[in-house]
Fold:
Amino acid sequence: MGFSEDLKFDDKGLLSAIVQDHETNEILMLAFMNKEAVEKTIETHKMHYWSRSRQKLWLKGESSGHVQSVKSIAIDCDQDALLFKVEQKGGACHEGYRSCFFRKLEDGELKIVGDKVFDKKAVYKQSE
Structure:
């Protein structure tokens, strides 16, 4: 029993997790968590998520080293979404940007407005 027992997961056992920088309030990412991810995050103070594409639990930064240390947790009024304020090491986005929200709609076109903070090919040792 505990905090995760009060949450309202969807029919797939997931809820939304909004992740925000604890100092600047910049939105870093949106991801999904299952009950195990919530419990692991609370236990370790490191962000854990459920990967819908890989169908597995993952620790943010497990391959990149770009971990998110939890500073605070808030729950929305419906108890089906969580807001985490974190200290972000490196970038939150797997594309190499600090935030996953590095594109902005301007004059009907998507423009890149974020700065890359790491080279994804070097970090993930992948080729394009």
The chain has a mean pLDDT of 94. The chain has one domain: 3-94.
